[in-house]
Amino acid sequence: MSETSMQPYIALAGNPNSGKTTAFNVYTGARQRVGNYPGVTVERKEGTAHHEGSTVHIVDLPGTYSLTAYSEEELVVRRELAERPPQAVINMLDASALERSLYLTVQLLEMGQPLVLALNMIDEARAAGIRIDRHELGQRLGVPVVETVARNGTGLAEALSAALAVEKNREKEGLTISYGSDIDPVLADMQVQIEKAGVATHKYPARWLALKILEGDADVLAEVRKVDSTLAERLAVSCHTVAGHIQKTLKTSPEAVISDYRHGFVRGLLKDGVMTQEDGRDRLAFSDKIDKVLVNAFSGPLIMFAVLYMVFYLTFEVGAYPQGWVEDFFGWLGGIATDAIPPGLLQSLIVSGIIDGLGGILSFVPLILIMFLFIAFLEDTGYMARIAYMVDRIFRSFGLHGSSVMAYITAGGIAGGCAIPGAMATRTLRSPKEKLATLLTLPYFPCGAKLPVFLLLAGVFFPDNEATVMMLMLLAGWSFALLVAWLLRSTIIRGKSTPFVMELPPYRLPTLVSLLVHCWERGWMYIKKAGTVLLAASILIWASMTFPQLDTEKAAPLEAAITDAESALEALAADAPDTLRTEVQANVDTARAILADASLRHSIAGRIGLALEPFTRPIGFDWRTDVALVSGIAAKEAIVSTLGTAYSLGEVDPEESEPLAARLASEPGWSPATALSLMLFVLLYSPCFVALVVIRNEAGGWRWLVFSIVFNTALAYAVSLLAYSVGKSIWS
Length: 732
Description:
The protein is of the alpha/beta class. Strand 2 and strand 3 (about 45-50) form a beta hairpin.
């Protein structure tokens, strides 16, 4: 038996924005692991807490409002609780929105879960004049109730103690609620049939299974059908009969009736002094007051753009210093390696393939960490949800569902996301056509992998307008995503848009610990990728740029030219004029550059780049840029490292290593028009390999993967051609 299996196991459950994950971070600190549940894309967080001398295993369940399988999160929560029964569930409740929060609590109790209720954000509830009698609430539900403030840790130890004190091996006797004369008789009959058959009753109470089937839960019915198909058919007939009766008499569905009775049970639970609102208090919540300005139809979008612009501006202003330190470090490291390793392939591999390749990527880590910190702040304060709400106002006119907003934002709609989790987030979309339109357009956003390219080029060619350029790239991503979505929904993916409903969480001031944890999680993923996948890519790219080597017959005259130029430099008298010494040194540099360029052109990468150059020259790209773009299909982060390796191999003086930014600035073929064209091409062309695989899996066919490669690259070419043509006329 593993050490983890012997530890007490506590689960954290609750609505989104209830403080559940904040509590998890307080409990576990750095002792946590983040991944996905097997077979699904819902994030799984688990870790260990040390409490009163014991080690406790804690799992942070996905945030959900119910246990009916409408979304992947809901399905994951109930399967986790059924298949890995915890000793207790700490149910985090938003004390300022208790009636809404208790809807999930009722379902957990119906499922027979041993609960501890944590009235979280109790300080905010009190500030709003809400008073909760936790002892009476606990008596009515038969569970311990604790007051907590997760962001500063208040009450969390008490909640964990209460959870550990829950009696083990408690039988699953779920809460029983009356659902009225139309539902109760059928529910009781179905419960008896399930109990007699013994179907899944080791995991769920029989009444809960019957209730889910009445709610039209196809997943539960399928589970019953696997064991006893005859029983499943009888239960389905019972559901159909009662559904027809309710539709005929009440003009509604069993699911709606059950939901109404649950809400009624919660409202009754909070009566008679359990929850009161102080008289004379302003009943308009603080968040509602702020929203009158921040989500106002006129001022809301203006403030949103100002906030996003400020994020980019501060990222550059603050991040310029640590970025320079990282660049200087890799420059120093490259110089040390050059001096320590004799000239040859090994020196080239270490300096050009590894140090310059990784240095080009890791130099942007400070900027990315700062940007992630700001994004985490927007998420934790609740403002990110407001952005989604405001953007949703225009989505329906483009044939998209409001939930597409979250997939877009995850993919990079707020710069720094990733198309891979963005594609996975489309699973919440019920309409296959809206899901497909979202999948095919979310790669247009400036994800975290594209940011180094944009940060590099904006800093080199638009040094006084970096924030403006980054903001424009973000707006370009949104514009192309919406326009292409509209085009697709008007042609090959026709269909009506479905309605969208979302909850705006209250504004809260996040804790520094929470911000740092969220920032580090994202930043560490980038650093790990740079140290593994991208390091391997850098070495492979270096090899493709080094081999095959120039044959002796072609290299000999070029090497002889270098030798002659170096001999001329050594032959100069000590008192030779500086102008003459500079001229002779320039001859040496030119001879070395000619050999380096010839070697690159002869390599595998050079041949690929040269083959593509006739097609990309009209949009301003040379063969070295083409090689970087090809490597970007494997991983967009590799674009910068490939450019770094290419220009490192071709630099004039290997004794004087300089940052990639300086090399590009001095290259005659580069200009603001070239930079603009390349940024737009990178923004729009084929998604990276892993994103393509996810898109294929989610879209359900290879044809959409091929479509994403071909259509996106063609669109990128057309846009870059226009941008380069216009740019040349402006910056000529």
